[in-house]
Each structure stands twice: as C-alpha cells, then as structure tokens.
Amino acid sequence: MVLKLRLARFGRTNAPFYNIVVAHARTARNSKPLEVIGTYDPIPKKDTYDTTGAMHKDIKLDTTRAKYWIGVGAQPTETVWRLLSYVNILPAKAKSKGSAAPKPKA
C-alpha cells in the first residue's frame, strides 16, 4: 500500500492548524493516520526570541521519524516536501518557469 506524508487540517474557520501525518494514499484527509510526526501553524506570529520583529510560521517535526518514513518509501505531498526542505530533510525542489509543456516554434 502506498504511504503519503501529508497535512491533516484542524483548527477553526480562518485559523487553520495542521498535523503532519503518515497515512495511506487512498484515505480521506482527516481520517485516522498511521502516525502523527509533527505540526504546522501557517499563521505568522512574532518570535519572542527574535529582536528584529520578523514574523515566523511554526513548524514542529520529529525529524527521526520523518527520515524513517521517507526511508521506507512514504511519498510527501508538495506542501510537506516544502516543509521538510525548510528543516533540511529533503532538498528544495527547483521552481519551474512557465508551463510544463514546451511552446511549439512557428
């Protein structure tokens, strides 16, 4: 069975909060996961330890479990891939310019 690393949404309207979970690929987004390996809060907040006043999004992740699940073949979604690249578990994907299909020459 194919495993996915993906986000499960919690929180209320206009205040999302996500669990980073390992689940079977064919299950619903909020069904019971195999394991919860972290959390992601996409609402930017000020860091109490940063004196510049910059806003930060909160990512908490069990890196050893994330590396384990990737090692056994779990496929991360695009968003989870981006989050894992922030904490240096996966390399950042290159951004593509334009559309995927090449334009024909006239």
Q: Could you say what the CATH architecture is?
A: 2-Layer Sandwich
Calculate Rg over CA atoms. 17 Å
Strand content: 35-45%
Strand order of the largest sheet: 4-3-2-1-5
Low-confidence stretches: none
- Helix and strand pattern: EEEEHEH
CATH class membership: Alpha Beta
CATH superfamily: Ribosomal protein S16
Number of helices: 2
Classify the secondary structure makeup into a structural class: alpha+beta
Mean pLDDT: 86
InterPro entries: Ribosomal_bS16, Ribosomal_bS16_CS, Ribosomal_bS16_dom_sf
Pfam families: Ribosomal_S16 (PF00886)
GO molecular function, one term: structural constituent of ribosome
Family: Belongs to the bacterial ribosomal protein bS16 family.
Descriptors for this entry?
single chain; 106 residues; alpha+beta; S16 Ribosomal Protein, Chain: A; five-stranded mixed beta sheet; 5 strands; globular; structural constituent of ribosome; Ribosomal_bS16_CS; Ribosomal_bS16_dom_sf
Question: What can you see in these coordinates?
Answer:
The chain has one domain: S16 Ribosomal Protein, Chain: A (2-Layer Sandwich), CATH 3.30.1320. The protein has helices at residues 63-71, 78-86, and strands spanning 3-12, 15-24, 35-46, 55-61, 75-76. It has 106 residues and is α+β, with helices and mostly antiparallel strands. Strand 3 (35-46) and strand 4 (55-61) form a beta hairpin. 17% of the residues lie in helices and 39% in strands. Strands 4-3-2-1-5 form a five-stranded mixed β-sheet. It is globular. Keywords: Ribonucleoprotein, Ribosomal protein. InterPro entries: Ribosomal_bS16 (IPR000307), Ribosomal_bS16_CS (IPR020592), Ribosomal_bS16_dom_sf (IPR023803). This is Ribosomal protein S16 domain-containing protein. Belongs to the bacterial ribosomal protein bS16 family. One of its GO terms (biological process) is mitochondrial translation.
